[in-house]
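Chain X:
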Amino acid sequence: METIKRKILIIDDDNFLVDMYALKFIENNFEVHTAFNGAQALDKLKGGLSPNVMLIDVIMPEMDGFEMLTQINNEKICPSCVKVILSNKSQQADIDRGDELGVAGYIVKASSTPQEVINQVIDILGKKL
């Protein structure tokens, strides 16, 4: 029996990390879409992309992850999407801000291996779907 591919939108300005996570998620039966900043991600979402989950970096040029989440919430874009922050910003204030913006998880890049990130995203999705 073929399992349904879940869609993920990876939003990060680091090309190497985007490529590496894209490959890892593809290996775990995800359909992967990418954006290199919040503005690009918003364009894709407004254009009809409806991922099951978004993996969002905080520090990016043009529009950071918090600004993007604020706009997504204000405009009610993709309300059923599960949002997970993947960032090196690990201060409690940042984690609290993510919670206020409705993220389902906050993963600190520096303390998680790629496989741990995949496992956490799958676990979060399992609780939400």
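Chain Y:
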Amino acid sequence: MAAQRTSFEKLQRDRAKKARAAAKREKRLNRRNEEATEELAPLETPPGEELTAAQLLARVEEIHRLFEDKKISFEEFEEQKADLMARISVD
């Protein structure tokens, strides 16, 4: 017995379904890329003024949140965290 051929309409439906899936995937990737551009504002302190420990710890929490949300890479996270930890003074 010969195999039944697929109809032209079915091929069109399959192609349209694949095109919609590709468009949806591209839209999702674009949204992720836009979210990934969110970055931390650089720490700027006036000359001769130090940030308080509470401000530094709040900044550490912020970079942890960005890393968990995959908005910054591990390398950026480690670099910023090391910079902040170096600024904390222990009395």
